[in-house]
Amino acid sequence: MGRLGRIVLQSESMLPYYHNYSSGTGAAALAVVVVHGIKRNADDYFRSIMRAAVDLDVAQRTLIIAPHFQIEHDTRKAGDAYWTDSGPSSWKDGGDAVKPAGLSSFQVMDKILTTLAGKHQFPQLTRVTLVGHSAGGQFIHRYAACGRAPETLPGMPVSYVTANPSSYLYLSSHRPVDKSQLRLCPQYNDYKYGLDNRSGYLSVFSDEQIRRQYASRRVAYLLGGADVHQDKDLENNCAARAQSANRFQRGCFYHSFIKTFLPSARHDLVVVAGVGHDHDAMFNSVPGKTAIFTLPTCQIPRKKRFQRWSILDGIGKE
Questions:
Q1: pLDDT for 14-36, tens place per residue?
Q2: What secondary structure does DSSP assign to 103-140, as a single string?
């Protein structure tokens, strides 16, 4: 079990997080910030990343932080910030908190990154990996496109690993379905699925600024090859269905879109064969550990053609 701390946010509100701070982590060269899924089980996610770090024998040199984004029905302490799981106050989309009003969940990640870059507690820290699975993967993916803090951290490269998210932020009106389906879904390009009708934290940058920013960031799409089921947590509205049928297909199509739309982007597709919607199995697989702990220097094979991924080559079959 990690140590439980609290981050001080605006209006003296707090956010709990799990961490492995100790005398040894003062010399950490890498920080991994992991964002939980819809169950908001930050402690489980912390343990999964810690297990991977121990297995790689890098735990003493890796700082691990697992923030806990709470909602109203969670057992909270007085003063804790909280959001909702969906709608305009959704933590996973960068929405504004219910309390304190106006606090975007992306501002929390900004706070974590600027604290890490301050060099006071962790003077040896040289890079950060942000990783999330499922709803946390949605958070990390959209923060990679829209987050403000990374551009202000000179000498502190940040990489992003988005694992098995339910949907993606498209940077144009393109979708991998017939246009006749899109005509039946007029809101398909609204945020969080596209760039239209952004507000609050998300409205600061223009569409073109977001495209340039996302193209400049180091991203891995970590997909479970068996995450092909339409379970109860898979987004199933028309805007999500316009991105394909299941998480694995949506990720493959999105990566192909990025390689066509932003060809200069250093974005890699990493498939964990035989694994479904399981954060621990994803993070502790060989491809998962490679993406999380060595992404800036590793060479991950890329699939380039959109048409090839539409076939899927049987990878998603159990």
A1: 999 999 986 556 789 999 999 99
A2: -BHHHHHHHHHHHHTT-SS-TT--EEEEEEETHHHHHH
